[in-house]
Structure formats: C-alpha cells, structure tokens
Amino acid sequence: MSDIKLSALNLVPIREGQSDQDAISDMVKLAQNLEELDYERYWIAEHHNAPNLVSSATALLIQHTLEHTSKIRVGSGGIMLPNHAPLIVAEQFGTMETVFPDRVDLGLGRAPGTDMMTASALRRDQHNGVYEFPEEVEQLATYFGPGNQQTYVRAYPAVGKNVPLYILGSSTDSAHLAARKGLPYVFAGHFAPQQMKEAIEIYKELFEPSEVLSKPYVIVCLNAIVADTDTQAEYLATTQAQVMVSITRGRMQPVQPPTDDLKGLLTPTEYEIAKQRMQSSLIGSEETVKQKLQSFIDEYGEIDELMAISYIYDQEAQLESYRKLKNIISTF
C-alpha cells in the first residue's frame, strides 16, 4: 500500500460568482499546486452542454495546463471516444506528446459525457460509437505505435509516440475490454460505485499481459475531502452533496458554498442519497480518512493509484484537503 500513487481529477467546475475564465484559471492554479505536492497526474474530464462546467474542449485545457506546469503528467479523464474520430484524437495527443514529451496521458471513455440530445449533436455517426469503442481503442494504439505497424492513413506526428492509453469505466463493460487489451483500468467510483467491486475483480481475473503491462494496473477515482476534524470535513462536503443533487435535478448550478442546513435544502430522498454518497467518499480528518482508505482496500482489494476529486468551494480548503490526502498516502 505504501507504493500507491496519488492523482487528481478536475471537471473544471464554475464556483458560484465565478466566470468561465475564473474556472480555467483555478484549474491551472490547482495543477501547479498539486505538482508541488508531487501528485502523479492531473486529469481533466470531458462534459458537454453543462453550464456549470468548462471542460468541453478537453484537449485544449490539457494543453493549457501542460504549458503552465513542468513535470506533472496531464491527461484526459477522459476523452469520450464516441464523440471523436480516433485519427483526430491521435493527431491532437501526438502533437501534445511532441511538445511535452512523457507528460501526456490519454484516458478513454465509451459514454458521450452528456445528455442524449447533445450526444446526437456531437456524434459523427448514427450512435454506433459506443459499440465501436473496442475497435477505436485499437485504432488509437496503432496510430501511436511504430511506423512498421501503420496502415496507409497515419496520424502524424503521433507515429511512434506511444502515448499511454487508459480505459475508463463506471460499470463492468469496460473492465472486460481493459483486461483483454492489457491496458490500465480506471474506475469512476466518485459517481458510480455500484459495480466497482465486481468491475475491479473482473479486470484483475481476466487480465492478459501485453506490451504495455505485465500485470493489472487499477486506478480508482473517489471523492475526497480531508480537513482538521471530521465535523469540518462533513461541513465542507455539503458542497459536494449540493453538486450531486444539482445533477439529479437537471439544474447544473455552479458549485455552492457549504451550508449548515443541508437537510433544509434537500428533499428527504435527496438527503438520504447525499448521505449514502458521503459514506462512500473519503471524508473526514486525516485519521478518519486513513481508516476509510484501509477499509476500502480490505473490501475492494489492492489498488495501484487513487485519483481524487474534491468538490470544495473554498480554494484554500481544497488545496489543504489535497495536501492532507498526500500526507495520508505518504505515511500509509
């Protein structure tokens, strides 16, 4: 467990009272701070038609972050492949790898990252992208591979760049694919923990060694909020609860400040759902979160990397949470 790596995911949310530009500036500042804390990687998600998120042009944000950092790996959590031609993705990420060598990751998802109407506006085919995901992952691997394995159509300057591919999942489907292709597997436990245990087990049991990996590599993304006390962390986590409820209500409002009256803001059903989500998150003091992380390992098995996402309104409190999480991992 002492060898576990620590990374972060950012959806580039807009906080209440902020502009789009503010959110992007915060994205860069957080990346710089996590780089100083020696976080392994910093991934940016892809979402569309979401007025509270600025992460639609993911590749541009990754490039912008790379330009303002010097060593932390930066990548996609993920590029939603049904929305994009693999050739274009390879050209974009091959170019970034050329400019910023050994710092670019390409996490790949099979969902559209939006609602179905927006997905229809995004997609380049008649909704076949989800079903073609395995073949398109293979296309990307070829585009980034050596010249003697290329076909006539090549993704310059991606040829030979070997940009690492990661398979993202929120169900068991992608676990099979990641295992069969011998690629790292990233599970979205921060919003879809229901099938997490089964998916990780499937990936580990069915894993086939490849040129990329000799053994399984599991990254789990979890909500994490660490503060001086459990009470303070739970108070900060009321922001996360409001984010989750905003999504289920279809309102997609900016990130809200924490509240002392969460129960009064939510319906009884929403409040219970929020409590359940908090229980599956790493929320509490350093001691409490360390215990929760150990309990997670006991239940789900060893993981290679924890990717944290922290919906905290106050940016200093957010950074302190990431700092405390790093302390926990470092002394585990």
Automatic annotation (TrEMBL):
Transmembrane segments: none annotated. GO terms for cellular component: cytosol. InterPro entries: Bact_Lucif_Oxidored, CmoO-like, Luciferase-like_dom, Luciferase-like_sf. Residues 18-295 form the Luciferase-like domain. GO terms for molecular function: oxidoreductase activity, acting on paired donors, with incorporation or reduction of molecular oxygen. It comes from the Bacteria. Gene3D superfamilies: Luciferase-like domain (3.20.20.30). To bacterial alkanal monooxygenase alpha and beta chains. This is Luciferase-like domain-containing protein. It comes from Staphylococcus ureilyticus.
